[in-house]
C-alpha cells in the first residue's frame, strides 16, 4: 500500500514537472501553432537566472523567490525577441518554424556555454525545501511539493488571465479568428508577441523549479523539450485542461512503468502508449470541432 | 461514351449533422434523379455546404445517403470518391505547384496500379486530352496551376472531376468571383456536362440559377424548405419569406452557422 | 496536340544522365585518384550522410513529411551491420562473444536476438528491412489517423530519443553509451588495410549513385507528382479517390530504407555505431544538410549534406564555439529565408522568371 502511494506521489511530481515545462507550450504551440524548439532553452535561461541570483543574494529562500518573477521576465523577453526576429515571418510555415527555432536554440546553448562554461552548475535549495514530510509511512519531498504547488498556481494564474482579463480575451479572439479580430480593432501582432512573452516566461518559471531537482547546464533544455511537446500533443490543441490531465497521467504512467521495468523501457512504452492513444483521438484529448479543410 | 446516360441518382434520407450541440443539417430528404442539373440554394448557414460535406464523407452524419445503390455514410472520403462522386470547394483547391496537365493526370489516376505509378508519364491520356479541350485550358497545360486566374482554377477543378470520371458532381459556388462572361461559359459547360452526368450546384447567384438550373432545392436553417422547378420555387411563399420577408428578424443560429461556413 | 513530353522535360532528360555521368566519374574515378587515404575515408563518411539526405529530400522535400527521426533508421541499419561484424570479429579471434559482452555481460551465452546476425545475408537484409519495418509500423498508425504534420515531427523525434535511451540502458547487449566500436573486419577484409578502406569508399559511392537513381525515378514518376499533390493538399487528393496515407507511407518507408543503408555503410567506413549518432541532435543534423542544399532538389540535398558534414568536421575541432553559432545561423537563414536552399538560388539566377516553386521539375 505504501509502495503504491509512494509511487503515485512520484508519478504526480513527475507530472507536475511535465506540466510546468509544457504550460508555456500550451500557449505558443497550443494557441498559436508555433513549434518552438527553443522552449527548452528558455527553461535553461530560467535555471541560470536562479544560479546568477544566488551569486548575489546569499539567502537561498529569498533568491528563489526573486528568481521566479525575474526568470519569467528574462525568458519572456527572449521569447518576445525570437518572435519579433523570426517567428512572425513564419506563421504560415509551422514545420519550418521548428527548424528555425532549433537553430536559435543551438545559438542560445552556445551562448550559455560561453558565459557559464560547459560543465553543469549547482544551486543551493532553501533549507525549507530540502527536507521531507512523512505521513503514515509515505514520504513527500518538500521540493516536489513546492513544484506541485507552483505548477498548480501557474495553471490557475494562466486560466484567470485567459478567462478574465482583456488581454486573455484578445488572445482567444486572435486564436479563433485572426481576420475578424483584426477588423475588430485588435492589434494581432502585438497580441502574438504578448502571448509568446507569457508562454516563454512560463518556461523560465519552470527553469527555476527545475534547479531544485536536476542539474543546470547548457543542454538541459533538450532533455525536456520533446516530453513537453508530447504533453501538448496528447492534451490537444488550445485547451489547458487537456495538458493538465495529460501531464499527470503521463507522469503516473512513467512512474509505474519505471518501477516495474527500467527507465529506458518505460520511455519506449510511454511512446507506444501515446501512438496508440492517437489512434483513438488523433487530435488529442480535447479539441474544438470545426469544419475546415485541414 | 456520348449519349449513354452515365449519371446515377442520389437519395438522401433524414440526414442530420451536429457540431458540438449545434445542428447544421436537421433531417434533410433529397432525391436527385440521374442527369439532373440541381441547384441547392439558401441563405448563409442554411446547411448547403455541410450537406455536401456529409455526403462526401468530410463530416460525420446520421441518416442515410445512397448513391447507385450504395450507402455512403460512414465510409472514408476516398472510398466515397471511388463510387463516382466528386466535389469542388468554395475556394478553388488545385495543386498549385503542379502543372495543369499534372493536376488532370493525377485526377485521372486513382485506379492506376503501382507499377504504372512508379513510371514516368509517357503520353497524355486520352480522357485528359478531352478534358483539356472541354475546359478550354489546352494552351495552358504546362503552366503551374498556381498562376491560373481564379476562374481558370475553377474550370480546372471541374476538369479534374471529368477525368476522374465521376457520375455525380457536387460543386460549391463554382461561379463565385467570376465575371459575367465567365459565368455564362461556366453555365454552358455545366449544361453540357449534365447531359452525361448528374450535377449538383450550391449557389448564391440567383441570376445564374435562373439561367441554368433544371431543378432547385431550397435549404433553410438545416431543413428542406422547398423543391421543384425554378418557377415553382420562385412562386413558393415560404421561399419568398426567407429571401425577401422579415430580413431584420434575427435568426438565432445564424452567427454560429456563418462561423462554421467560413 | 498529342505530343509526348514537354520540351522542358525533354531537355531535362538529357541533363540528368549527363549530370549522373559527371557525378559518377568524379566520385568513382577522380576522388580516389586525387585524395589521400585520410581524406577519402572522411569523404566516405560524408557520402553516408548524403545517402540519408536523398531519403530526406524524398520524404520532406517532395512529401512534406518532416522526418526528424532519421537517426533511428540510420542507427538500426548501423547496429544490424555492426552486430554481424562484431560477431565475425569474435569468431575470427576464436572467441564466442564480442569483446564488450565479455566485459559487461552477465551471461556466457549470446542473447537470442544476436544469434541470427551471424549470417551475413540476414544481417545485410536487416540493415534495410528493419528500418523500413519500423517506419512502416509508425507511419501506418500515424498517417492512417491523419495525425497532423507537426505531431508527426514530434513523434519521430520522440522515437529517436527513446531508441537512444534504450540503447544506453542495455549496456550488456548493445554496448551502452559506447556503442559497438573497434570493428576490425568487413566480410573477411581487414579494415585497417588502406586498400580495403578504399574499397569501402567505392562501395559507398556506388550506393549513393544507385540511391540517387532510385530517388530520381520516384521524383519524375507519377508517384512523384502525386506525392507533391499530397504535400500541397492532402484533402483534395482524398477526394480524387486516393488514400494519401499510402502515398506518404511509401515515401517515409523508402526514406527509412535509405537511412538504414547509410547507417550500415557508415560502420565499415568509420568503425563505430553508437547512441550519440542516433538521438534527437544527430537526427535533426540529417535534415540540415538537405535544408541548406535545397530540400526539394536531389542534387542540392546531396551537396548540402556533404558540405555541412565537411564544414562540421573541419570547423568543429578548430573552433567549436564558432561552429555551433554558424550551425544555428545556417538553420535560421537556410530554412527561414531561403526555404528552397542553395539549389533555389541557382534556379533563381538561371531563369529570372518568377515561378511559384521549382518542385515540379528541377532535380
UniProtKB/TrEMBL annotation, chain C:
Topology of the protein relative to the lipid bilayer: Multi-pass membrane protein
Keywords: Cell membrane, Membrane, Transmembrane, Transmembrane helix
Keyword Disulfide bond: no
Membrane spanning stretches: 12-34, 40-60, 65-82, 121-143, 150-169, 199-219, 240-259, 265-289, 296-313, 325-349
Keyword Membrane: yes
CDD domains linked to this entry: TM_PBP1_LivM_like
Identification of the protein by name: Urea ABC transporter permease subunit UrtC
Species per Swiss-Prot/TrEMBL record: Streptomyces fuscus
Gene name of the record: urtC
Amino acid at each position: 500500500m505504501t509502495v503504491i502511494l509512494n509511487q503515485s506521489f512520484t508519478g504526480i511530481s513527475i507530472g507536475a514537472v511535465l506540466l510546468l515545462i509544457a504550460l508555456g507550450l500550451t500557449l505558443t504551440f497550443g494557441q498559436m501553432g508555433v513549434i518552438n524548439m527553443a522552449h527548452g532553452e528558455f527553461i535553461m535561461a530560467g535555471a541560470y537566472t536562479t544560479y546568477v541570483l544566488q551569486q548575489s543574494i546569499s539567502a537561498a529562500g529569498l533568491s528563489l523567490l526573486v528568481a521566479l518573477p525575474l526568470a519569467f521576465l528574462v525568458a519572456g523577453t527572449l521569447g518576445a525577441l525570437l518572435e519579433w526576429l523570426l517567428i512572425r515571418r513564419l506563421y504560415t510555415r509551422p514545420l519550418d518554424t521548428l527548424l528555425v527555432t532549433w537553430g536559435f536554440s543551438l545559438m542560445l546553448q552556445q551562448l550559455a556555454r560561453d558565459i557559464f562554461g560547459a560543465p553543469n552548475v549547482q544551486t543551493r535549495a532553501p533549507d525549507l525545501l530540502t527536507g521531507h514530510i512523512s505521513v503514515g509511512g509515505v514520504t513527500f519531498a518538500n521540493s516536489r511539493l513546492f513544484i506541485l504547488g507552483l505548477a498548480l498556481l501557474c495553471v490557475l494564474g494562466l486560466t484567470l488571465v485567459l478567462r478574465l482579463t482583456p488581454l486573455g480575451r484578445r488572445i482567444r479572439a486572435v486564436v479563433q479568428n485572426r481576420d475578424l479580430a483584426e477588423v475588430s480593432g485588435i492589434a494581432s501582432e502585438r497580441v502574438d508577441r504578448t502571448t509568446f512573452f507569457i508562454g516563454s516566461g512560463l518556461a523560465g518559471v519552470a527553469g527555476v523549479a527545475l534547479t531544485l531537482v536536476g542539474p543546470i547546464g547548457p543542454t538541459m533544455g533538450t532533455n525536456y523539450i520533446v516530453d513537453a511537446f508530447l504533453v501538448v500533443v496528447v492534451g490537444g490543441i488550445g485547451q489547458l485542461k487537456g495538458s493538465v490531465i495529460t501531464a499527470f497521467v503521463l507522469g503516473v504512467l512513467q512512474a509505474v512503468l519505471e518501477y516495474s521495468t527500467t527507465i529506458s523501457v518505460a520511455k519506449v512504452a510511454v511512446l507506444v502508449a501515446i501512438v496508440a492513444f492517437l489512434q483513438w483521438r488523433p487530435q488529442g484529448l480535447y479539441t474544438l470541432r470545426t469544419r475546415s479543410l485541414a | 461514351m456520348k449519349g449513354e446516360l452515365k449519371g446515377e441518382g442520389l437519395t438522401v434520407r433524414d440526414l442530420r449533422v451536429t457540431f458540438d450541440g449545434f445542428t447544421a443539417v436537421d433531417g434533410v430528404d433529397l432525391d436527385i434523379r440521374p442527369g439532373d442539373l440541381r441547384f441547392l440554394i439558401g441563405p448563409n448557414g442554411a446547411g448547403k455546404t455541410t450537406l455536401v460535406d456529409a455526403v462526401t464523407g468530410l463530416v460525420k452524419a446520421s441518416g442515410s445517403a445512397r448513391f447507385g445503390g450504395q450507402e455512403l455514410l460512414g465510409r472514408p472520403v476516398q472510398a466515397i470518391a471511388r463510387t463516382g462522386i466528386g466535389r469542388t470547394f468554395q475556394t478553388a483547391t488545385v495543386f498549385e505547384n503542379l502543372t495543369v496537365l499534372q493536376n488532370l493526370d493525377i485526377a485521372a489516376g486513382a485506379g492506376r496500379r503501382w507499377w504504372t505509378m512508379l513510371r514516368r508519364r509517357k503520353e497524355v491520356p486520352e480522357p485528359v486530352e478531352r478534358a483539356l479541350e472541354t475546359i478550354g485550358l489546352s494552351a495552358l497545360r504546362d503552366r503551374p496551376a498556381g498562376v491560373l486566374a481564379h476562374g481558370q482554377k475553377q474550370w480546372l477543378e471541374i476538369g479534374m472531376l471529368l477525368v476522374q470520371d465521376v457520375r455525380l458532381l457536387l460543386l460549391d459556388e463554382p461561379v463565385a468571383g467570376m465575371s459575367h462572361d465567365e459565368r455564362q461559359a461556366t453555365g454552358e459547360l455545366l449544361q453540357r456536362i449534365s447531359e452525361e452526368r448528374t450535377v449538383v450546384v450550391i449557389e448564391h447567384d440567383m441570376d445564374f440559377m435562373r439561367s441554368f438550373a433544371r431543378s432547385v432545392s431550397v435549404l433553410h436553417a438545416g431543413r428542406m424548405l422547398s423543391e421543384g422547378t425554378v418557377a415553382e420555387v420562385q412562386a413558393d411563399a415560404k421561399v419568398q419569406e426567407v429571401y425577401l420577408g422579415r430580413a431584420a428578424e434575427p435568426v438565432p443560429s445564424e452567427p454560429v452557422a456563418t462561423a462554421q461556413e467560413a | 496536340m498529342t505530343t509526348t513530353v514537354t520540351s522542358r522535360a525533354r531537355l531535362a532528360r538529357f541533363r540528368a544522365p549527363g549530370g549522373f555521368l559527371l557525378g559518377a566519374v568524379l566520385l568513382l574515378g577522380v576522388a580516389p585518384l586525387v585524395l589521400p587515404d585520410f581524406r577519402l575515408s572522411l569523404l566516405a563518411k560524408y557520402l553516408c550522410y548524403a545517402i540519408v539526405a536523398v531519403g530526406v529530400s524524398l520524404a520532406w522535400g517532395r512529401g512534406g513529411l518532416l522526418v526528424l527521426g532519421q537517426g533511428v533508421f540510420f542507427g538500426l541499419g548501423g547496429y544490424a551491420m555492426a552486430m554481424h561484424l562484431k560477431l565475425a570479429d569474435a569468431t575470427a579471434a576464436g572467441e564466442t562473444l564480442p569483446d564488450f559482452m565479455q566485459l559487461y555481460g552477465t551471461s556466457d551465452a549470446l542473447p537470442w536476438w544476436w544469434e541470427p546476425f551471424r549470417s551475413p545475408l540476414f544481417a545485410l537484409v536487416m540493415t534495410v528491412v528493419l528500418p523500413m519495418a519500423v517506419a512502416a509500423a509508425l507511419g501506418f498508425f500515424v498517417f492512417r489517423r491523419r495525425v497532423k504534420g507537426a505531431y508527426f515531427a514530434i513523434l519521430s523525434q520522440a522515437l529517436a530519443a527513446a531508441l537512444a535511451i534504450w540503447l544506453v540502458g542495455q549496456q550488456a547487449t548493445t554496448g551502452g553509451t559506447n556503442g559497438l566500436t573497434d570493428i576490425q573486419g568487413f566480410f573477411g577484409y581487414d579494415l585497417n588495410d588502406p586498400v580495403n578502406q578504399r574499397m569501402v569508399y567505392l562501395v559507398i559511392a556506388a550506393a549513393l549513385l544507385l540511391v540517387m537513381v532510385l530517388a530520381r525515378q520516384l521524383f519524375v514518376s507519377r508517384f512523384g507528382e502525386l506525392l507533391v499533390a499530397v504535400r500541397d493538399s492532402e484533402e483534395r487528393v482524398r477526394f480524387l479517390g486516393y488514400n494519401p496515407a499510402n502515398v506518404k507511407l511509401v515515401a517515409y518507408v523508402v526514406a527509412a530504407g535509405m537511412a538504414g543503408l547509410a547507417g550500415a555503410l557508415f560502420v565499415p567506413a568509420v568503425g563505430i555505431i553508437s547512441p550519440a549518432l542516433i538521438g534527437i541532435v544527430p537526427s535533426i543534423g540529417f535534415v540540415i544538410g538537405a535544408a541548406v542544399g535545397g530540400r526539394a532538389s536531389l542534387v542540392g540535398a546531396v551537396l548540402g549534406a556533404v558540405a555541412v558534414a565537411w564544414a562540421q568536421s573541419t570547423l568543429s575541432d578548430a573552433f567549436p564555439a564558432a561552429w555551433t553559432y554558424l550551425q544555428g545561423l545556417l538553420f535560421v537563414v537556410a530554412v527561414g529565408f531561403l526555404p528552397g536552399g542553395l539549389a533555389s538560388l541557382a534556379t533563381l539566377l538561371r531563369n529570372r522568371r518568377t515561378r511559384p516553386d521549382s518542385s515540379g521539375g528541377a532535380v
